[in-house]
Amino acid sequence: xRFTFEMKKLKYQGGITKLLMSRRGKRNKExxxxxxxxQLQAMVQRFEQRKVAMEVASLSxxxxxxxxxxxxxxYQRFVGIPLAWTVYSDGTHTANExxxxxxIFPYVKVVKIDFTDPLIVRENMRESFLPxxxxxxxxxxxxxxxxKLYYYLNHKIENPTLFIDSDILFYELAxxxxxxxxxxxxxxxxxxxxxxxxxxxSGYKAKHGPYMYQxxxxxFLLNKELENVEIGLTYLNSLQRKYENFAEQTVFxxxxxxxxxxxxxxxxxxxxxxxxxxxxxxxxxxAMAMRHYTGPVRHKMWQRDWKWQLSL
Length: 312
Description:
The protein is an alpha/beta fold. The protein has one domain (50-309): Spore Coat Polysaccharide Biosynthesis Protein SpsA, Chain A (Alpha-Beta Complex). 41% of the residues lie in helices and 16% in strands. The protein has a seven-stranded mixed sheet, with helices on both faces. A three-stranded mixed sheet has the order 5-10-9. β1, α3 (65-78) and β2 (81-89) form a beta-alpha-beta unit.
């Protein structure tokens, strides 16, 4: 007969654990921030210089600058050197941060649009989106998620392009996984399924029941240009400039499902916060393609140092 014993946790044990690991993560992040350009370039040279027929686009800010840098390092470490990586800035990056990114990673280009100038915003918008200009501009001027929507939808797709948030790290299974999905010629694209149903605009949820796979807009791959965008932008207009936290994700949820995107395998493309109160990690990094370190588990991105994350 087999017996299983469950150890009872002390009151507040999970919260204390998270606090301690967050402090450790802060120290590890500070050590990473103190690395010089020369040290980071030397680290990059240690990686296998494998070329990848893929582009990457990400949105970040000065507040997650080091998360963005570690994300790029992990991509080059476990996937390879992309054709190009566009870092879309929310406008807060300093000139020094932009220079550092573009110096360490020659394939990176930082794009920083002045959203306070409607003429510049219009000049960088696809002609087909001009009927939606007013509310796309308002959304971008008032929320960082609006900037993300604007940047990503106006990004020209010339090669398979991965769109990600800055808090994404790649791991051992990433290269083989991307090789497989890029070879699916009949698939328009792929998205990361959200952990739970509900991270969508309340107005949308009131009219639609739960889906088996809800889109998380922090990670998706386009194999070609989106064909059906109108329904998503029409929904944005229906919000009447009243935006909830998940307004942008709802628009992407509508658009990607309308374009028949497939979900990435959630067993290796991880979006989960179940280990946020634990000392250990709930997932084996050697059995993952990537992990999205959203707010509840952001500390786990740094709980172990960057050398551990990069398997160095």
